[in-house]
Amino acid sequence: MPYRNIELIKWVALFLMVGDHINKYLLNEASTLLYCAGRVAMPLFCYCLAYNLARPDTLIGGVYSRTAIRLFIFGVIATPAYILLGGVFDDWWPLNILFTLFSICVICYFLDMRKCNYAFLAYLLFLIFGAVVEFWWPAIAMGVSIWLYYKEGRGMYLFLALLSCALLALINDNFYALLAVPVISLASALRFSLPRFKWMFYAFYPMHLYLILALRSYLMSKGYLFFT
């Protein structure tokens, strides 16, 4: 596999996500800059997950199951804050981004089994998960296409990944998600490594949502009403 500065890409995605959530939940989306920059975060997280899952020893090493369990657990932990902050349309839908990444992980696992019945199940799960997770089918298709590209090296999958990323415009109302491509290219050109924190990126998602929720509740109690 070519060199990719995955940890740096994760940190960039994390900061963009935090800025986007501050804008959404504390500033009532008043900052166009933070909103547009935030559209880049999800494709970066999908890229990092898919790239890591495409490593040669993922299946025999049990990486799929460990990653899926972590994503599911922290997705569940984040759900109350996600709902209370208003991240849903109807009670619980859609499920938060960790469940989107969980879906990618599960689908890639079934495809990696390389059996017809598992492949059928992967396609079925794509249809089901895409209807209930954040960023829907384009996000899952993008993650799985990136994974397929690094597993098989076929340009068709890279094209499908870019197409899926572009289709996020149907959700975002803009094409800023495509800026993930130059971010990945630039990060990959920087030859320095950042320390890897095994659980940090899983735990940070629910933690930062609860902190934002607590801060918003405090500010509202002091009379700040710009959240409505």
SSE blueprint and pairings:
Layout: H1 6-25, H2 32-38, H3 41-53, H4 63-84, H5 97-112, H6 116-130, H7 136-152, H8 155-167, H9 169-172, H10 180-189, H11 200-221
Helix pairs in contact: 1-2, 1-3, 1-11, 3-5, 3-7, 4-5, 4-11, 5-6, 5-7, 6-7, 7-8
Please provide a brief summary of the model.
This protein has 228 residues and is mostly helical. Helices cover 70% and strands 0% of the residues. It has helices at residues 6-25, 32-38, 41-53, 63-84, 97-112, 116-130, 136-152, 155-167, 169-172, 180-189, 200-221.
Report on the structure:
- The chain has about 230 residues and is mainly α.
- The chain is built from 11 helices and no strands.
- The chain has helices spanning about 5-25, 30-40, 40-55, 65-85, 95-110, 115-130, 135-150, 155-165, 170, 180-190, 200-220.
- The termini are far apart.
Average pLDDT works out at 93
The number of E-state strands comes to: 0
Beta-strand proportion: under 5%
Overall geometry comes to globular
Largest sheet geometry: none
Low-confidence stretches: none
Oligomer: single chain
- Structural class comes to mainly alpha
Q: N-to-C terminal Cα separation, in Å? A: 47 Å
The total count of helices amounts to 11
Could you tell me the radius of gyration in angstroms? Answer: 18 Å
Order of helices and strands: HHHHHHHHHHH
Q: Determine the fraction of residues in helical runs and give it as a percent range.
A: 55-70%
